[in-house]
Write a structure and sequence with these properties.
Strands 1, 3, 6, 14 and 15 form a five-stranded antiparallel sheet that branches. Strands 4-5-2-13 form a four-stranded antiparallel sheet, with no helix packed on it. It has a four-stranded antiparallel sheet with strand order 10-9-8-12. The relative contact order is 0.17. It is globular and about 70 Å long. The protein has helices at residues 5-14, 26-30, 34-44, 50-60, 64-77, 81-93, 188-196, 210-223, 260-263, 319-326, 331-339, and strands spanning 97-109, 119-123, 132-138, 142-144, 147-150, 160-171, 174-175, 228-237, 240-249, 257-258, 273-274, 278-283, 293-295, 303-311, 342-344. With 347 residues, the chain is an alpha+beta fold. It is built from eleven helices and 15 strands. Helix 3 (34-44) packs antiparallel against helix 4 and helix 5 (64-77) packs antiparallel against helix 6 (81-93).
Length: 347
């Protein structure tokens, strides 16, 4: 009796890549074994789910260019809509990113009196070398320490003011594997165990559980003598961008990402994996976990704020983009004078 190749592959991968928890030991975290790649390649030739498994293993191994090709081939044969969306996102995560992102902060006056003395603040977006570089192109925000601050004109009753911030992001898919902690540093197994202890909260402070889980990981890591911070950024879902939070280690392997939420379902990708569909932007710990905050003298009653993110529709080859790229720092005040604010509501 012969054993089907996919069954053999599944048995082989179970030693290294388990759907429930793929990084219980250091071997599994350090690198994807060559045996898994070879079996996955053979399985891909038999069709079925083989091409998807092969693309996935290539991505986990950090062979992103090959992974993007394999995801594209699998996408061409996929019929289910959800599978096609997932494959498209994984392919995007394996391809170099060079894009403009527009962050739009909004403040609404739901009260009966004009709002004056408002101060909007967000964490300062910063690059993440060696795999990501970013530059702020324009917006009425001003850099003040580790924050960007904007002080808009008074907002009349019933009006909403929108404040844009455009950034240029260039990012390469990257992996920290093979993971080897320096002598005396925290063990990878300990980091995995810490992430495994983070439960899914019954209620959460934001629109999703990721921030609360990242804060809990940071606190548990500190109790274990391991310094970590809460990182914030964006995750691509098709043509949309959603806000997300995870953790960054500050010792052992500085900059190593750990995602407690993803660890529940795909732990091999949750540690040391930096695909281009995850776009890190800022240190959320420095802002108390808030991507945007507002303050003013007196009460903030009747004030509501929001922050959205989207890919800019601006053509990167047009004249305006080239002017923005070449503009000195003094362009930001100039942009403000041009009318960087947008107001909606009654005149």
């Amino acid at each position: 009796m012969t054993i089907p190749l996919l069954a053999t592959l599944a048995a082989t991968l179970s030693l290294y890549i388990s759907p429930a928890d793929s990084c219980r030991n250091r071997l599994e975290l350090s690198a994807v074994p060559e045996e898994a790649l070879l079996f996955a390649e053979l399985a891909a030739r038999q069709g079925g789910d083989g091409p998807i498994l092969y693309a996935r293993v290539l991505e986990l191994a950090g062979r992103f260019e090959e992974a993007a090709t394999a995801y594209g081939i699998a996408l061409g044969g996929a019929e289910d809509g959800a599978t096609r969306s997932w494959l498209a996102d994984r392919r995007a995560g394996s391809i170099r990113l060079d894009t403009l992102i527009l962050l739009t902060a909004s403040v609404t006056n739901a009260g009966d009196e004009p709002l004056s003395g408002l101060e909007l603040a967000m964490p300062l977006p910063r690059p993440h070398p060696p795999y990501q570089d970013l530059r702020i192109l324009y917006g009425p925000f001003r850099e003040e320490g580790d924050k960007l601050v904007c002080r808009p004109d008074p907002v009349p009753p019933g009006c909403t003011v929108e404040v844009p911030l455009m950034i240029h992001v260039v990012q390469e898919p990257f992996t920290f594997r093979p993971l080897s902690m320096p002598p005396g540093g925290p063990a990878i197994e300990d980091i995995s165990e810490l992430a495994s202890r983070i439960g899914y909260p019954d209620i959460f402070s934001g629109p999703g559980p990721c921030l609360d889980m990242a804060v809990e990981f940071r606190d548990r890591a500190a109790a274990a003598g391991l310094e970590a911070r809460v990182e914030g950024g964006l995750v691509r879902q098709g043509d949309s961008l959603v806000f997300h939070a995870w953790n960054i280690l500050l010792e052992g392997i500085p900059g190593l990402p750990v995602d407690p939420l993803m660890h529940r379902t795909d732990s091999l990708r949750s540690i040391g994996h930096c695909p281009c569909d995850v776009i890190p932007l800022w240190d959320l710990g420095a802002s108390g976990g808030h991507e945007l905050s507002v303050s003013r003298p007196g009460s903030c009653e009747g004030v509501s704020i929001g922050l959205s993110a989207a890919f800019s529709a601006m053509d990167r080859d047009n004249v305006l983009f080239r002017l923005l790229e070449a503009a000195p720092d003094g362009f930001l005040p100039f942009f403000t004078r041009m009318g960087g604010f947008r107001r909606e509501g009654p005149e």
